[in-house]
Amino acid sequence: MLVSQILRTKGDTVFTVKPSDTVGEVAELLHSRRVGALVVLDAERVAGIVSERDVVRAVATGGPGALARPVSDFMTANVLFAEPGETVDSSLSRMTDRRIRHLPVCQTERLVGIVSIGDLVKWKISEVEAEADGLKAYIAAS
What is the arrangement of strands in the sheet containing 45-51, beginning at the earlier edge strand? Predict the structure, then answer.
């Protein structure tokens, strides 16, 4: 299973913010869109990613005043990306190693989607279940 197949099914919508948006605005958007992370775009270039964890960290270290600061102060600037042709297993492995839950998907430096660890685990479970069903059918036919 490839990342591109997951995007075809789940869609390629990516919610984005600007580096100048405040942490408070980002928190509201995370809540209203019911997502765990937003991609930070500076014009058309991915400048970073901001997650619920980043918002909590901002408030924990900066107090309530952090909500008025720009998200660029707290975002993860060193973004790990997936490519559409990457396998689910490869993406899951990298996410586990780096302890991250979201991977923006880029093709030739253009943002084309985002996948979460939940998306990948869901597909992995479906794949394992289909394989188990195939083995059960094979055994029953023998």
Answer: 16-17, 37-42, 45-51
When pLDDT is cut at 50, 70 and 90, the band that residue 108 belongs to is: confident
What are φ and ψ of residue 100, in 5° steps?
Answer: -120, 160
Looking at domain 3-141, its CATH architecture is Roll (3.10)
CA distance 83 to 99: 18
Give first-to-last CA distance, the chain, whole Å. Answer: 29
Domain ranges of the chain: 3-141
pTM assigned to the model: 0.86
